[in-house]
Amino acid sequence: MPSLAFTIAARIIRQLIRDRRTIVLIIAVPLVVMTLIGLSFPEGQVLDYIAPALLATLALFFSFLLTGISFLRERSQGTMERLMASPVSRLDIVLGYLFGFFLFALTQTLIIVLFTIYVLDVHYSGDLWQIFVFQVVVIAGAVNLGIFISTFARNEFQMVQFIPLILFPQIFLCGVIWPVEQMPEYLQWLARFLPLKYGVDGLRDIMLLGKSLADVALEMLVLAGFAVATSILAALTLRRGTGG
Question: What's the pTM value of the predicted model, to 2 decimals?
Answer without folding.
Answer: 0.88
